[in-house]
Design brief:
Elements: H1 2-34, E1 38-44, H2 63-70, E2 73-75, E3 78-79, H3 84-93, H4 119-125, E4 129-135, E5 153-157, E6 169-172, E7 175-178, H5 183-197, E8 203-208, H6 220-223, H7 243-269, E9 276-282, H8 304-307, E10 311-314, E11 323-325, E12 329-330, H9 334-341, H10 358-361, E13 373-377, E14 380-384, E15 388-390, E16 396-398, H11 414-431, E17 443-445, E18 452-456, E19 461-463, E20 467-468, E21 478-479, E22 487-494, E23 498-507, E24 515-521, E25 524-530, E26 557-566, E27 569-576, E28 587-595
Parallel strand pairs: 1-8, 1-9, 2-11, 3-12, 4-5, 4-8, 17-22
Antiparallel strand pairs: 2-10, 5-6, 6-7, 9-10, 13-14, 14-15, 15-16, 18-28, 19-22, 20-21, 22-27, 23-26, 23-28, 24-25, 24-27
Helix pairs in contact: 5-7
Length: 597
């Protein structure tokens, strides 16, 4: 009996010691949170899980990115959505994108509903300075614009992709500007300046890089490392791997690695490393068939290869270095995790779907329950448990032993298949809007708190002979304007009465000069003429390392159309050419409205 009591006392002492150790860990985190840790979140565009040397790809070298995993935690089973805008919406809100009004990647379907709370809004209320530099892809016109979603400073583009990565037309807080040099380098420059400027106050820097999304443009320094090389790691599926596309993508990732190194160096120089959380991730799987650890699927697919991405989180001397976390996690977990790490008690307007990953980061035993992760694009939905994935055709795979999804084990485990199928059905019933993808949201114009509103060709509707420059709407322009009966319309909702200065970004051949332009919105109208021809060639192809599928671009010229008074309300914005003296009117890239009263 004495031995039993002694053993029981020993076990109780161990339990107390364990609790004390956990308490110390929690106390350490709270101490750091009281200092308000800075946050740098880097999101790449179309980079696969396999596009890193730390994940076994010997085709390239990514030492700076790899070091984030070596000096922090690596989530081995981290999932995002199959395409760009849904993932970004989930990261921003901690909620399933199917709840958020996001159903497409262009023409308004990428917009994040206004009733949602973003991580930037939370951190801003906690005293953080906030900035986003890069690709936004969750809404262009305020109040969908990043400046209206919690970001003090925005530089980049809000569309789904961009047509030129070398000194392109961009925007800075709504004002149209010209970039400087290679875009990923330029975005990093802005990030470095932001870190330096705010090094004595808490900051949140979101760097959604534009690469390795097409067009496949990258400086010679990086391309020359790959153009004549042979690839040791190649895609093994039945689909064809386009080797030059792969080489360009890997060259772009090495450029990303260079820029990650620049961020790390600046944090070191300013003695900020130990008080800065650095996160690295991608928004979906690879944008081509290339080596990706043998997983099935790529961008657009809800299978492993389309949704499993790297996720590294470093917080030196707080998060243990070299951790490899096996538990499944998702983009919806980022907001609650950052809210925990910053000790924020701000509530979101709507309940979160994600959960804080801090129990995994700090090894709090007994604080983690089994869960499911859902992936969907189009009409294809898959469900991932810790061990299994049920695909969109209800085939069951043991992912722990069959990451390539080659052996359907549905017949062996019908109860597991049926339980996951039921979970999928219930999730769709709960999160998908009853109206499906019917979108009755007009494009907003003239928000009283913001100076600029853009109406790009992407969001317009052509009438008559007018055509888009490409069937992918992002970054397109309207062309083939042949008749006075042709027009372009935008479905707009003017949010507040006001007077606006309107600029048109156009091209026009010399023989078509002196075309009349008319802009109409309800009873408001302005009329002018374009008297300066501007007819640059299409460009982009000379910098492309692989032929693009998206639109080529032009250098568009700004024309001040004049001033117009707009009344609050929903109605069409109509652009007409009542006089076409030649065989065509102008090509149209963008209307820019600046509130002046």
């Amino acid at each position: 009996m004495h031995r039993i009591l002694k053993f029981t006392s020993f076990c109780f002492a161990l339990l107390l010691l364990s609790c004390n150790e956990e308490s110390k860990t929690l106390h350490t985190v709270r101490d750091k949170n009281q200092e308000k840790p800075n946050i740098v979140l880097i999101m790449t565009d179309d980079q696969g899980w396999g596009d890193l040397s730390i994940n076994g790809n010997t085709n390239l070298s990514t030492p700076n990115i790899d070091s984030l995993a070596l000096n922090g935690a690596s989530f081995e089973n981290f999932y995002v959505q199959p395409v760009c805008s849904p993932t970004r919406a989930e990261f921003l809100t901690g909620r399933h994108y199917t709840r958020l009004g996001v159903y497409a990647t262009s023409a308004g379907g990428e917009r994040l509903n206004l009733e949602e709370t973003t991580i930037a809004e939370i951190l801003k209320k906690e005293g953080y300075r906030t900035a986003a530099y890069g690709k936004w892809h969750n809404g262009m016109q305020p109040p969908y614009h990043p400046n209206a979603r919690g970001f003090d400073d925005f530089y980049g583009f809000t569309s789904g992709h961009w047509g030129n990565y070398f000194s392109p037309m961009l925007e800075h807080n709504g004002r149209i500007v010209k970039g400087k040099g290679f875009l990923t380098d330029d975005l990093t420059d802005k990030g470095l300046n932001f870190i330096t400027k705010h090094n004595n106050e808490p900051f949140f820097l979101y760097l959604p890089f534009n690469t390795p999304h097409s067009p496949m443009q990258v400086p010679d320094e990086y391309w020359n490392r790959f153009k004549d090389s042979s690839l040791a790691k190649k895609y093994k599926g039945t689909e064809i791997e386009e080797l030059n596309f792969t080489k360009a993508a890997l060259a772009m990732v090495e450029n990303i690695d260079y820029n990650v190194g620049r961020i790390q160096q600046r944090l070191k120089e300013l003695d900020l490393e130990e008080n800065t959380i650095v996160i690295y991730m991608s928004d979906n799987g690879p944008n081509s068939w290339r080596w990706n650890g043998g997983m099935r699927g790529k961008k657009g697919s809800p299978d492993e290869g389309g949704v499993r991405t790297p996720f590294f989180i470093q917080w030196k001397k707080t998060i243990p270095a070299g951790m490899k976390i096996k538990e499944i996690a998702s983009a919806i977990d980022i907001l609650p995790t950052l809210r925990s790490l910053t000790n924020s008690d701000m509530e979101t307007k709507k309940p979160l779907d994600g959960k804080s990953l801090t129990p995994l980061l700090f090894k709090r035993k007994g604080h983690w329950e089994p869960r499911l992760v859902y992936n969907r694009w189009g009409k294809n939905t898959t469900v991932r448990s810790q061990k299994y994935r049920l695909d969109h055709e209800d085939r069951l795979y043991d992912i722990e032993n069959d990451r390539a999804q080659q052996v359907d084990i549905s017949d062996q485990f019908p109860k597991i298949r049926d339980s996951l199928r039921t979970a999928k059905t219930n999730w769709l019933d709960e999160t998908l809007p009853i109206s499906g993808n019917v979108d009755d949201r007009s494009f907003t114009l003239g928000h009283p708190d913001f100076e600029y509103t853009h109406l790009p060709a992407r969001d317009g509707i052509p009438h008559g002979h007018i055509k888009r420059s490409n069937h992918f709407p992002n970054d397109t322009f309207f062309t083939n304007w042949k008749s006075e009966k042709d027009s372009i319309t935008w479905d707009v909702n003017v949010l507040s009465d006001g007077k606006f200065e309107v600029d048109l970004y156009y091209t026009l051949a010399e023989e078509n000069n002196n075309v009349a332009v008319q802009l109409i919105n309800g009873q408001s109208m302005l009329v002018t003429r374009i008297t300066e021809a501007h007819d640059p060639p299409l460009e982009g192809m000379k910098n492309d390392r692989y032929p693009r599928g998206e639109s080529y671009i032009k250098k568009f010229k700004r024309k001040r159309l004049g001033k117009i008074f707009l009344k609050k309300g929903k109605r069409a914005m109509i652009l007409k050419a009542p006089r076409v003296p030649g065989n065509s009117a102008m090509d149209v890239r963008l209307l820019n409205f600046r509130r002046i009263e």
